[in-house]
Amino acid sequence: MSKPVLRVQDLSVTFTSLAGSVFNRQERQIRAVDGINFELFAGETLGIVGESGCGKSTLARAILGLLPPNRGRVMWMGDNLTELDEEAMRQRRKELQIVFQDPVASLDPRMTAGDIISEPLWTFYPKMARLQVDERTRGMMKMVGLLPNQINRYPHEFSGGQCQRIGIARSLVLNPRLLICDEPVSALDVSIQAQIVNLLQDLQKKLGLALIFVAHDLSVVRHISDRVMVMYMGQAMEVSEKERLYRKPLHPYTNALMKSVPVPDPKLAAAARRENWLTGDMPSPYRRPKGCVFHDRCPFKVKRCEADVPPLRRMENGDRVACHRAEDLDLSVVEA
Amino acid sequence: MALLDVTGLEVEFETPEGTVRAVSNLDFHLEEGETLAIVGESGAGKSQMMMAIMGLLAENGRARGSALYRGADLLGMTARELNAIRGNQIAMIFQDPMTSLNPYMTIEQQMTEVIMHHRKLKRDEARAQAVEMLRAVRIPDAEERIRQYPHEYSGGMRQRVMIAMGLLCEPELLIADEPSTALDVTVQAQITQLVRELREQAGMSIILITHDLAVVADIADRVMVMYAGEVVECGSAEDIFYNPQHPYTRGLLDSVPRLDRASDQDLHAIPGNPPNLLDLPVGCNFRDRCDEAREECREPPPVWRDETGRMSRCVLPMEGGKRVDPDGTGPESRATNSASRENRE
């Protein structure tokens, strides 16, 4: 295989918040993203899943330089993005784009679809001819399944799914090499979700994009990803090839997450009910458990899990897992 | 007699752009101890239908038809009469636990308010009941945590508080509007389990409004599928999931990505977008997006029913069903329908 386009190394983001009374201020630290490592190849899709608050969106933003990391490197085609000066980073941004979660809120209601999609062009190529911009905008609209004659319409005249198409067109108009989608379908109805997932998949094939797909929905992620990273409390629990992850997860947390996904089938749902899923809530980020961050909810924990932090280690087949007991657990999924 | 019997319900909103018909010609009933799921996408009218029944429509909204709760028409009641029922015999759990709790009041204040109003209890009695209910929904250290404000609770815990509040007066009917949509799957599984246990203990009837078919499969006895303000199909959970009759129901089921199925093909998507309620297509509302559409679909589709209460609104015949009038009502029910309407006017 060729060289990866993106290499994230030991990336960490810490937020500081103030607590205590006015006279007794205390600083509290939250490690939102904690030592994340992964590689991404051209044309590959990495799914990132986890519960809310696990740091998946923060990770996405840190990769794009929208949040300053306090440790680690983001190597993009040979450059360390965290060290680039503003102008160099600006030039790099053309290659790195994002699609946001809320399709309606992420569009300016006072701009037409055409203005929204062409804005990146005006920003990066201010001397581009009007006609050329127009042509490119219409081309993008066609590519994402909108009608070019809708170019002068405003966001409120589009449905949620169509607004997300506008957001995708905007993020692709500069010909990026990496597209990060942060929960791109979670705000959409299920019949429309499928349209957008299929569209992203087609576009990726057509354009050879490297894609990072952040979502809490494991079944959507399964559809679009080549590999999946499972995050919990800012850390990667498991990074595995998709089919292996869904057939035989290596980490008890992955297993628990999959078991909680309901199936639209009454008989299977009744059968699944008998199995134990995850108990309790995710611990407060201020009170991070010692040892393995998952140990207090893990049904398989042993003494060692309470003291030693399991490193994310590579298995023989190239999958990676952060669990002391990965070898002696068999978490295979029984196919219905 | 059914616990709730809704006939000919119509909900309209006056807007500057014209009259929006959010719900049209809706009939359904709920038996005691039954769980009915109402499924549909945004704009299908499922929430507005319940708001109409509970007398909670916005200023510009209007409801017609009848909704008999133990024989008494909820739509004809005054606010005072409704207040005696709402929160007491019928409880509602709203969609968003973040915005449905008052951020300026402690959980204790919000919960005791309900019981003190309906049950005329003293503060410490009410408090004891509230703590007990929080324990039932598995809030840890309920005794302590009841003194906290909503922001000190996690999303899943806030939703559990909402459920606890809904159950405080031991309602006969619980209406839950997307109770687990804003939650992570792990928490969602816990909430569904909790509702199921409480249902078995208290013998409640439940109306569950949701767009999530997987949650429906997990909990519902009967399912009603809505599209653009109308019921397109209704039947037992088994019928709907294993033998869907309406093309929309089939499309909806096929577009759910499933963990228990291989993922190498494209997801099935229903083409197009839900219709604009201000400008509905003539004939079948689903016609523009339907892969079975044909010339006859330009006419209002016929309704098929069988003796089990199964129903489908489509030109395609329903398995074992008999054809009824295209406007969705049989000759008899139409008569009672207009009678009840006259009564109200």
Features:
heterodimer, A: 336 residues, alpha/beta, 8-stranded mixed sheet, 11 helices, globular, B: 345 residues, Rossmann fold, 4-stranded antiparallel sheet, 12 helices, disordered C terminus
Would you give an account of this structure?
The complex is a heterodimer of chains A (336) and B (345). With 336 residues, chain A is α/β, with parallel strands linked by helices. Chain A is 32% helix and 22% strand. Chain A contains eleven helices and twelve strands. In chain A, the strands form two sheets. Chain A has an eight-stranded mixed sheet with strand order 6-7-8-3-9-10-12-11, sandwiched between helices. In chain A, strand 9 and strand 10 form a beta hairpin. The radius of gyration of chain A is 21 Å and the shape is globular. The mean pLDDT of chain A is 90. Chain B is α/β, with parallel strands linked by helices. Chain B folds into two domains: 221 residues, P-loop containing nucleotide triphosphate hydrolases (Rossmann fold, 3-Layer(aba) Sandwich); 101 residues, no CATH class. Chain B has twelve helices and 13 strands. Chain B has a nine-stranded mixed sheet, with helices on both faces. In chain B, helix 7 runs parallel beside helix 8. Chain B is globular and about 65 Å long. The C terminus of chain B is likely disordered. Classes of the chains: A alpha/beta (336), B alpha/beta (345).
- Give me the side-by-side strand order of the main sheet of chain B: 6-7-8-3-9-10-12-11-13
- Shape descriptor of chain A reads globular
Please state the CA-atom Rg of chain B, rounded to the nearest Å.
21 Å
Binned, the helix content of chain B reads 25-40%
Number of beta-strand segments of chain A = 12
Mean pLDDT of chain A: 90
> Helicity level of chain A, as a percent range?
25-40%
Please name the CATH topology of the largest domain in chain B.
Rossmann fold
The overall number of domains of chain B is: 2
| Termini separation of chain B | 25 Å
